[in-house]
Each structure stands twice: as C-alpha cells, then as structure tokens.
Specification:
Elements: H1 9-20, E1 26-34, E2 40-48, H2 50-54, H3 58-63, E3 77-78, E4 90-91, H4 95-110, H5 114-120, H6 126-130, E5 135-143, H7 144-156, H8 170-180, H9 190-200, H10 203-215, H11 222-226, H12 229-233, H13 235-249, H14 256-270, H15 278-290, E6 321-324
Parallel strand pairs: 1-4, 1-5
Antiparallel strand pairs: 1-2, 2-3, 5-6
C-alpha cells in the first residue's frame, strides 16, 4: 500500500470546516478606489482562512498570531497612500463595477450566506460584522484588487496580470476580462503585485510579477516607465527598463527620436519635476557608455534610487491595523 499523501494547508482547512462549520475566520479591509478629491477610499472586505495564509509565509504567521485585542473604527478614506501611481485603484466612476465583480468572485469561491454579504457591505453594520471573525485587519496601503489577486495566488498558485497602464489598453482589457470571466478576480498590475510581494517576502510571486512586467516593456511608454517614481524604488526593475531601451535603440546616433525623449526627461529632472529620477539617468548613462548590463549593486551609494515615504521599499513592511477577535 502506498503511503498516504500529506494534505495541503487548504485541504486541511476545508476538512476542518466540515466539522466546525467555519472556513473564513479572517477579513481584510482594503481601499479600492481613487476618489475625485485625490484621497483613497471605498473600503472593501476580502475574506480568507488564516490557516492557509500562515502556511504561505512568515509575514502571515506574524500578522495572524497576534495575542492582543483592540477595537477601532474602520476608516472611510485616507490621504496618506504611499503608491500614488497605483493602477489597481479604480477611478471613482468605475468603483461600483470593480466592487460588484470582487463580491461575485468571493460568493463563487467561498459560498458565504447572502445575508453575510449584505451585512459586510452595509456601513451601519460594520462593527456587528467584525465580531464574526477572529482576525479583522485593515491594510491602508495596498489596493483591494492587488490583495484579492494575492489571496487567489495563495489558494490556487495561479495569477493573472493586467496590462500596464502606460500601454493605453489596460481599461478595455479589464472590461473584456470581466465580460468573459464574470466569476474570476480582476487582473492586477504586475507593478502593484511586485511591490506587495516585496513587502511580504514572497519571492516566487515577486519573480512572476517582474517577468510579466518585462514581457510588456515593448508595448508601453518606456521612457515614462523608466523615469517613474515606482521604477526609482526598485533597482531590479529600473535596470530591466534601461537594458530594454538600450537593446532597442543603440546606437543613439541613428535614433534621434529616442535621444530627444531622453533629453526631455533630463530637462524635466533639471527643472525639479522628476526629483526621484537620478537612478534612471545613471542606469541609462552607464548602459549607453558600457554597452553591457549592470547590476543592482552598481546603483548603490550616492546613485541609489530615491525611496518612497517610510524608507527604501525592499526594507519596508506592510502597514496594517489589526483587530483580533477571539471566539468566546
């Protein structure tokens, strides 16, 4: 008789739920929209099983093992959102579409009762809903779309990335995806997922996001991407973009359009419009002069890209406000 295979964390959680009647013990609240005021709002609940998440990595083991209890009000919106360029935040006039799609997906995946869905989305009953979960966690600096994709990746090992916004076809691609796959999660930005995977230490997911981003470089406004604040945070991405530019356009003497675009970006830096872009200039200059790839270590020291609020991103931890509720 062959030895019985060991069950996965997901299988174990499902088996336990058969006898205790509970699978979802964790609810995350994340913002889904960029409001017309410039603030980030439209708090959205996403559900998970803590046993499955703890098996995914140290970040979740620490996050979901808190032995304290606290209560606080759920925020309606915030102004301090580190990643202002986050394309996984829907514009205000598209919020209802995004929220309905995500809720439909979770009904399909977890089959919660309909009255539970109504309660979760009723602002007046938020506190009553919180008492139904062991862990209630507010993540104020990640978009709901990105976190939803993360949860699905942890459960299934699969993820679908959206087109980069600078390519100009992201919105129509997502609309088509919703129409063709109404029960599936919305594709997330590879840039947003790279940032999140870096925060929580999931190297495999970070690699998938980077590979997808690199595969799209030929279809986007590469100069805008290279000189963006996001790229300045991550040497690995910045170098990939610089290598892509040089691989396409060397020698510059025969590409006056490219040279003009670079000169304009340098002028913007000189005017103080792109204070974060020193690393981009250094990466391009070194690549052009040496005609070879450079490594992240070569961008260390004085030429290290600028970091976002709170410090250099690779060392940054995910912000969260946690309400841990233990069943009596």
């Amino acid at each position: 008789m062959s030895p019985q295979s060991q069950s996965t964390p997901l299988q174990a959680a499902l088996t336990t739920s058969v006898t205790n009647g509970h699978f979802l013990d964790t609810v995350y609240y994340l913002f889904s929209s960029r409001l017309s005021s410039g603030r980030v709002g439209k708090l959205q609940p996403l559900y998970a099983n803590s046993q499955v998440l703890k098996a995914a990595g140290q970040h979740f083991r620490g996050q979901l093992s808190a032995g304290f209890q606290m209560r606080h009000e759920l925020p309606n919106d915030i102004e301090d959102y580190d990643y202002a360029e986050d394309s996984d935040l829907e514009d205000d006039d598209q919020d209802d579409i995004a929220t309905r799609s995500d809720i439909v997906f979770y009904i399909y995946l977890h089959q919660p009762a309909l009255d539970e869905i109504d309660t979760v989305n009723c602002v007046d009953d938020k506190q009553r809903t919180l008492s139904n979960f062991k862990h209630v966690i507010v993540i104020p600096d990640v978009a709901a779309t990105t976190w939803c994709a993360l949860m699905c990746y942890i459960y299934t090992g699969e993820i679908k990335f959206a087109l980069l916004k600078s390519g100009g076809k992201r919105h129509e691609n997502i609309v088509k995806h919703k129409r063709d796959n109404p029960l599936a999660p919305i594709p997330c930005s590879p840039k947003s997922m790279y940032r999140l995977a870096e925060m929580i230490g999931l190297e495999g997911l970070k690699t998938l996001a980077l590979e997808n981003l690199q595969s799209q470089l030929s279809t986007v406004k590469i100069m805008d991407e290279t000189f963006s604040k996001f790229s300045s945070w991550y040497p690995e991405i910045l170098i990939a973009e610089a290598d892509h530019i040089c691989g396409l356009y060397l020698p510059l003497s025969s590409n006056t359009t490219t040279m003009t675009a670079i000169e304009e970006k340098i002028s913007q830096v000189a005017r103080g419009e792109l204070p974060h872009a020193e690393g981009a200039i250094m990466a391009l200059l070194r690549r052009f002069s040496e005609h070879k790839s450079i490594t992240p270590k070569e961008l260390d020291g004085d030429s290290r890209p600028s970091s976002p609020p709170g410090g250099y991103v690779p060392k940054k931890k995910l912000r969260s406000a946690t309400t841990t509720m233990h069943a009596s």
